[in-house]
Amino acid sequence: MTAGDAVLSTPTIPHGAVALRLHLFERPGVEVMHSLRPPWPRWVQRLYELEEAAEEGIDLERGEVTMGAALSATADRLKHRLDLLAWGVTALEELHWCCELHGDDIIAWRITARAAALEELEEAGVEGPLCSVCELDEHGRVRLFDGWEL
Questions:
Q1: d(CA 77, CA 47)
Q2: What is the reported pTM?
Q3: pLDDT at residue 54 is higher than 90
């Protein structure tokens, strides 16, 4: 099996396990578009406010930024996301969750009851931060899948 085959394979999640899906990236153009066009996250808006005086191509009232500024903001956002994912995956592994690459996502799974998994993630202080890189359920908590749902 090559590294490319591993990315395309479906993780084998045992019966009785719950899993969560951590998102790595969107397509490159989509990632840049999030920085190029409003609405921007508050921290990106502040970044552009700082750069607006120095760069004539940035006009926040009109929702315009330069491609260079958008690429810089995208790089910052991706670094922040990767740092969060690295921290979260490490924390999950320390809690004995198995983490596997699946396409453009990381699938983390563990054999346990759904309620026990949510309690463990909350008590460990992992659930809140992971909410920004995981799918959420109808209550705004990390969405846990049964292994066969992936």
A1: 11
A2: 0.83
A3: no
